Amino acid sequence: MIGEGPVSRRLPFFVLGLGVLVISFGAILARLAQEGGLPSLAIAALRLGIAALVVTPLAWGQSRTVLQSLTRRQLALAAGAGFFLALHFAAWISSLETTSVASSTALVTTNPVWIALASFVLFGERTSRLTLAGIVVSLAGSLMIFWSDASADSGGRAALLGCALALAGSWCFSAYLLIGRRLRAGMPLTAYIWLAYGMAALFLLAGCGIAGVPLSSYRLPAYLAALGMALGPQLLGHTAYNWSLRHVSTTFVGVVTLGEPVGSAFLAWCLFGEAFAPLQAAGFVLSLSGVYLAARGEAR
């Protein structure tokens, strides 16, 4: 884990870049797990459950005092963050069943719009003009990616249900980031991610029980893909986002996540043959350009 003390000015940007790279594999591993027979809700439960179990010794070893002295407010915030994180993964992973990787990741990363709006309404935050321009440009790129994929003859993968689930996942992730910022400000990183991931895993396990979704008797490759999601995109990728919340704004963290569709769509092209269309390529360029503008605005 990265230390909690003073850091160089560039380190948060490097950590976020690494997080985007790792988390781009999330959609690919989810698709592989689905092809191995794992239901989407089970994939989400295993991803968060394994991640919470792995981080448990570190969290209690480094932050035992903090975890033993949690206030009711902190527990309520942890439950809220975990609830929305669980909804995010349940909705987004389910969207991959009916729409393409490019469309799903493009829609699920529209959260900067909802974060900026909520931050303005709830917290009175202001964003720089460059950051605002980065949001607009990045969202335009994401919309171009979605429009190109939705207009293609893709055999129904761009179904309305999948798009709606991905968009709902974006709303839930926005709520998770906003609640997480309040909780994260008062505790170490390891304690925070153990609480958030653990709460989310409990909600997802309860969902599996209610829906009658078993967690056993699937093929080994499916479980390996779920394990990869827990160790890579979840522990490394999302933890990088969580660590960065103390050093850069929530809005900027949300903007950086717009790099995910680029990496995921490229991997989907390499592994699943989901070819790029000219409009998609233009969208990828716009998305990355928006991240650059937002980085410049945040640095100033």
From TrEMBL:
Protein name according to UniProt: Threonine/homoserine efflux transporter RhtA
Taxonomic lineage: Bacteria, Pseudomonadati, Pseudomonadota, Betaproteobacteria, Rhodocyclales
Transmembrane helix is among the record's keywords: yes
Signal peptide: none
SUPFAM superfamilies for the chain: Multidrug resistance efflux transporter EmrE (SSF103481)
Alphabetized InterPro entries for the sequence: EamA_dom, EmrE-like
GO terms under cellular component: membrane
The keyword Transmembrane helix belongs to this UniProt entry's keyword annotation: yes
Keywords: Membrane, Transmembrane, Transmembrane helix
Domain EamA intervals: 18-146, 161-294
Transmembrane segments: 12-32, 38-63, 75-95, 101-123, 130-147, 159-179, 191-212, 218-236, 248-269, 275-295
